[in-house]
From TrEMBL:
This is Uncharacterized protein. Residues 24-157 form a coiled coil. SUPFAM superfamilies: Tropomyosin (SSF57997). It comes from Sporolactobacillus nakayamae. Keywords: Coiled coil. Gene3D superfamilies: 1.10.287.1490.
Length: 341
């Protein structure tokens, strides 16, 4: 009987030992997961902080540029008024000379006529400068509004980054990259390319949605092998399978408040493990009149925001122009190819 009790006690101790060992193992796993999650959150916070600082710097620079531009505009407007006054006086003098019929009328008339023509040329040049300043101010104000909107959103949410760990995303894996060519023609250029998406994980991924984020935001434009959402709905019967569609913004004004463009397949598209898809033949037109640097980031969201990644590369274009504003000089292009014509 004693032996049986001893055996039961030993068995009970062994069971308890296994229970606590398993519990300790689970706690250790939870601790490792918590440390990994904490490190990830710290990295996200650091990225968010750097992104906010960058937007703040851009915002300050753009505000200063806009302020300087408005001062130049005011000076030009004042100069325009002065020239217009001189032109009006010259025309009045010519009219008086014609009316008085003086002996020196012909000579004075020719002199004043040349002077008027000179004023008219100068007035035309100043008016051209003012028109250019008007356009530049409008561009900078739009650019500034987008930066302010991004800065406001930056304080509300974390930037899109690769997510792993919680919500069962540990087995979701994908890669994405951009293949593109840059075609330059004078002060305008065109980016043509593809966004390739591949499921490298062990679980299927839901329909991908691609976000193009433009820097500066006011150049946001996307053409090529893509439809707008309302056009896709109108021609749904004739639409090819999985045509890529631009998701229309709720704000119907001309100003894109975010400087982002979102596209996704028109129908459901499940990416199984080792399967890939691509958004092909997109085109981005760029006018370099008021900018020398262009950067376009790309993010991919799968399903109902269950997993999201950033493309492995970005579109980067840097140019400058000669004083005559004739031939662009290519400074740098970190990704892709760029035939000059």
């Amino acid at each position: 009987m004693t032996n049986s009790k001893d055996m039961l006690t030993i068995a009970s101790l062994e069971d308890r030992q296994k229970y606590y060992r398993n519990k300790a193992l689970k706690l250790e796993q939870s601790m490792i997961f918590a440390k990994e999650k904490l490190a990830q959150l710290k990295e996200e916070l650091s990225e968010k902080s750097e992104k906010t600082k960058e937007i703040n710097r851009n915002h300050q620079n753009l505000t200063q540029q806009l302020s300087d531009l408005k001062k130049d505009y005011e000076a030009l407007t004042l100069r325009h008024r002065e020239i217009q006054d001189k032109l009006d006086k010259a025309e009045e003098t010519i009219a008086q000379l014609k009316q008085n019929q003086r002996a020196t009328t012909d000579l004075s008339h020719e002199t004043y006529q040349r002077r008027v023509q000179g004023y008219e040329r100068l007035l035309g040049e100043v008016q051209k400068e003012i028109n250019d300043k008007d356009k530049r101010i409008a561009v900078y104000e739009k650019r500034l509004a987008i930066l302010e909107n991004r800065l406001k959103n930056e304080r509300k949410k974390v930037e899109p980054v690769v997510e792993t760990g919680d919500r069962g995303t540990a087995n979701y894996r994908a890669i994405s990259y951009i293949n593109y060519a840059w075609i330059l023609n004078g002060k305008k250029s065109l980016i043509q390319g593809n966004v390739v998406i591949e499921n490298t994980g062990s679980l299927p991924l839901g329909t991908p949605t691609i976000c193009f984020r433009f820097h500066p935001g006011d150049i946001a434009a996307l053409k090529g092998h893509v439809l707008h959402e309302e056009d896709a709905l109108a021609g749904e019967s004739e639409q090819e399978e999985n045509q890529w569609v631009i998701l229309d913004m709720e704000d119907e004004s001309d100003l894109n408040p975010t400087g982002e463009i979102w596209v996704r397949p028109s129908g459901s598209l499940i990416l199984n493990p080792d399967q890939s898809t691509a958004f092909t033949n997109f085109q981005i037109p760029i006018d370099h009149s008021y900018l020398t640097s262009v950067r376009i980031e790309c993010f991919v969201f799968f399903g109902e925001d269950m997993y999201k990644i950033k493309c492995g590369n970005e579109i980067v274009v840097n140019t400058s122009f000669t004083k005559q504003d004739r031939e662009p000089i290519v400074k740098d292009d970190d990704h892709g190819t760029h035939p000059s014509k």
